[in-house]
Amino acid sequence: MLLSHFMNINTVDSKVLTSSFSVDSSQEAQAFFQTGTKYLQESIDERKHLLQDNSGFGIERIIVNDLITFGCLLIYNHKLVPLISATGYDVISMAKAYSDTRKMYSQSMTGLRLESLFFPKSNPILTCPPETNYWFTRVLEFEIVAFVSRNGNKSANMEEYFQALMDTFLLLKDACYAMAIVRFPFPLIACLTNFSDKYRQLLRNGDEFAFRLLFIYSCLCVISRIPLNRNDNIFVDYISEFKNIIFSKYGEFSYPIDRELYHLVIRTNFVVDFGDMTRFHPLQQCEPLMDLSWLERYIDSLEKTNTLLQCI
Prior knowledge:
Blueprint: H1 27-50, H2 56-76, H3 91-104, H4 106-109, H5 115-118, H6 137-150, H7 156-182, H8 186-191, H9 197-204, H10 208-223, H11 234-250, H12 256-267, H13 282-285, H14 295-311
GO molecular function, one term: DNA-binding transcription activator activity, RNA polymerase II-specific
InterPro entries: Sterol_Uptake_Regulator
């Protein structure tokens, strides 16, 4: 099951997440922290009992229980577990373990009211229509096509690589759309558990564009208010690490949209309005924070490049 891949469930206790790890000493932050550790301890205790229940009801409860535990560790872990690490002991691995467990019991979840939370595609209301575009999706889709086209012929492996990137892109797009429906960032958290094995392997292989998609995902998590502390969390850690790697290689961000996302996360307190996700556009909502006059010209250049690539 999920956490048994990383820790002994009989000995783990939420007290490992003591307030001494908190990066915010305010009473409000500590109250949130204590509530989170309370939920975590309850989920761990409940899981010990559910492991002995082999009924369908028990399976449903244990999958929900693992999701609560995973969510607590993701939001409240105070950087005890990094988003991604060379050691493999990270949130990406935890999400895969959770996903593998969930797939084992996928048939038991069919028809349940919670199915759409675990399998977003099962609920068309939470699936983004193909014609819907957000401020970053139109740009990012063009950039993926251009990047893959520039980096090799369309062999079987290249097609597989392209599909892994596009599948991850569509997950992000669906998550943003679903957030606008439920007006809560849960779909973005759940998105992490739905990354494909092929995409996770690209991350393990150090693929630069796969890292970039994780950077964009992390930025979305921060401006969607998932971490309790805006400036000190596993997402900002990864964002800063990605920026340092790219700058050491190129001296600047390779893509303009990355530069603006970094600016939003690190240099402002900007947060998205979930109810306005479908209309969120930087030229209208971010212009007071930064100069985005380049964006439409950049999109036009990408459209022309992709049109030329299709003619080759």
